[in-house]
Design a protein that fits this description.
It is a single chain. The chain is about 50% helix and about 5% strand. The protein is mostly helical. The strands form two sheets. A two-stranded parallel sheet has the order 1-2.
Length: about 290
């Protein structure tokens, strides 16, 4: 018994050593349970996975936008009254929209999706997407609403008054043109130094296609401003920045694009430039030429 108990008898130095060993063991236990032993490569792998997941979410979001998801909801509408903005939101080109508007200027109507495609020239794929929203009222076929039969004789150029001198009071006499629109038209006319063409009425916020027609039935541009067209392939940065539809930054983008591609071959090519107002190409042509 005494021999067995002798194993538990320690001198002062041995007791200090045992005590120090216990402290080391406790310290190691604390370090083990409180430290993150995940390897650096494994941590990097997890971080890469998280980054890849975030990027994939952004790509999926962009795909949804490209496929038309999460965009403004489209309600049924009569394509005969299609506006510029509506056309662009549906994916139509300025040329396709203008074809429909010119068709309507002749007081002609489209009465089916097929006729709409024939007039505008939209692709089969686009027509398939948008025709589900078309709504053709039956009253267009009735005599009661046959507008073309009650059409007034169109005024000649000589009979119309000058759009560049018409007053707000005169504009207010037109049905559908109130105080706000009349002032907006005159204010914009002053801002750009006078209308160059009736097409610039498209730039008036809140002025729809039907009301533009009402104005141009009695008014047209007779005394345009003194602006001279400039060749976009020769124009300086300053000259381009003075064009009504450009600012300094866009003018610089055009110059950079021209230098990169040696020249600009067509107005449609301008749509490739970042932030270029492609929906206003028909009005931009009033100020520029391409030689």
């Amino acid at each position: 018994m005494k021999k067995w108990m002798s194993h538990f008898v320690y001198n002062s130095a041995e007791r200090n050593g045992i005590f120090l060993l216990i402290l080391i063991i406790i310290a190691l236990q604390i370090i083990y349970f409180s430290s993150d032993f995940i390897s650096v490569p494994y941590k990097q792998s997890i971080e890469n996975e998280r980054t890849a997941s975030a990027i994939q979410q952004q790509i999926d979001s962009l795909k949804e936008v490209a496929l038309g998801k999460n965009t403004v909801r489209i309600y049924p509408f009569n394509p005969n009254f299609l506006t510029d903005y509506k056309g662009y939101s549906l994916g139509m080109t300025p040329t396709e929209i203008d074809k429909l508007l010119n068709h309507r200027k002749q007081d002609k109507w489209v009465n089916s999706a097929e006729e709409f495609q024939k007039v505008t020239g939209v692709s089969d794929a686009l027509l398939k997407e948008i025709k589900v929203y078309f709504e053709f009222p039956d009253f267009k076929k009735s005599k009661k609403y046959a507008f073309s039969k009650a059409k007034k004789p169109a005024k000649s150029f000589e009979q119309k008054n000058d759009l560049n001198t018409v007053s707000t009071e005169d504009l207010k006499q037109i049905n559908g043109i109130g105080e706000v629109l009349a002032r907006r038209i005159v204010s914009y006319r002053t801002k750009i130094g006078g209308f160059v063409n009736d097409l610039q009425l498209k730039d008036i916020y809140g002025l729809n296609y039907e009301n533009r027609n009402k104005i141009t039935a009695d008014y047209t541009v007779k005394t345009s401003n003194s602006y001279q067209k400039i060749d976009i392939n020769k124009a300086t940065l300053l000259q381009l920045s003075e064009v009504v539809y450009f600012d300094y930054e866009l003018a610089r983008e055009i110059i950079d694009y021209r230098l990169l591609n040696e020249k600009i071959g067509s107005f449609e090519e301008l749509a490739k430039i970042k932030n270029f107002p492609a929906d206003k190409i028909d009005r931009i042509k009033l100020y520029l030429t391409i030689d």
